[in-house]
Amino acid sequence: MVFYKLQFDIYFTLFFLLFLTQQPLSHMQIGYYLVSVLLYLSAALLIECLAKPFYWKITLLVIILFSAGLALPYLYFFAPFPLLSLILEKEVQRLRDTLLYLLLANSCVFFLPNFTERLAYVFLTVILALFYHLLGRGYHLMKAKEEANEALKRHMEELSQKVEQQKAQFLRETQLAKLEERNHLSHQIHDQLGHALTGGLIQLEAAQAILYKDPEKASELLGNAIVINKNGIDSIRKTLQATKPAQESIAISQMKAKLEEFENDYQIRTVFHYEGDLRRVTQAMWYVCYHNLNEALTNVLKYSKATRVNIQLTVLNKIVRFKIQDNGLGTAHFEKHLGIIGMEERTSKLGGNLVIDTRSGFGIVTLLPTEETTS
């Protein structure tokens, strides 16, 4: 804002010098005015650099102008500049304050020689007041926006730090949960396996001790050892099955992760729905669906120019239906390429069919028979 104010002062100085050449003044008087104007501009720049309150600077400039104006009255044309610059300091621009400063600036009009110059002075103060009013309003508005942006930036940085802290805490808690689960599993296996091995070993040692003395009893002890070991193995197997995540849970998580990565990389929205008994979907079916999904997403990027992709997995009585539909460009003439051929081959290996619909967007439906149907 100071830059614009000084720039306006310089422009007015040039206009003022042109005005002096039109007045009935001697060359010496014009020289005095020129030196006085240069001294005033130098003083204004110097005072602007001082670490003093704004009102103190204005008062000093006004005193300099009034003192010089007693000898050179046309210098009073510079008086509105420091007086009306008080408008710039008001964050809230009130019309009452502007009129007050305008009245104060026009107090110098009576020191000018004739009516025409006084009229020009009044016109100058009005134009200058309007300019400073608009400049101050724009400056404070811009300053408020910058402060708001800075506050928003700080808030975003705080949120980012909180997210990073929560992420780190989540990773620590996840790691701790894994360690606790691993510790619990090791204790459970140790207790079950240790009990089975210890009991079986006792039975084997007892059978060895009486093997030749009492073969029937030794045979009975060997049978007990076998039963104890079988029970221990079954118990361990059940424990491992209980801790292992379900196949459908892993497959769904992989698909969600793939779709989330696709959204983040290409800004194309994806919607994934699934229904039915997912336990009936075999690992081979999940393999076909996942790789068909990959190929379909590649087609979306290459051909359809879509902004949204819907994925629907439905487990019915006799078939598994996996549909991928986008909202991109459809076509009446579709030619199969290697990617589509690969999808058909994968699907046909499980006895399924691949249906392609390109009338409205690009749609691919994978139909796979369930094990009950194939058997």
Automatic annotation (TrEMBL):
Reactions performed catalytically: ATP + protein L-histidine = ADP + protein N-phospho-L-histidine
Coiled-coil blocks: 141-176
Keyword ATP-binding among UniProt keywords: yes
Gene Ontology CC terms: membrane
GO molecular function: ATP binding; phosphorelay sensor kinase activity; protein dimerization activity
The entry's keywords: ATP-binding, Coiled coil, Kinase, Membrane, Nucleotide-binding, Phosphoprotein, Transferase, Transmembrane, Transmembrane helix, Two-component regulatory system
Main enzyme class: transferase
Transmembrane segments: 30-48, 54-77, 98-113, 119-135
Gene3D superfamilies on file: 1.20.5.1930, Histidine kinase-like ATPase, C-terminal domain
Signal transduction histidine kinase subgroup 3 dimerisation and phosphoacceptor domain mapped to chain residues: 181-247
Protein name, UniProt field: histidine kinase
Record organism: Listeria grayi DSM 20601
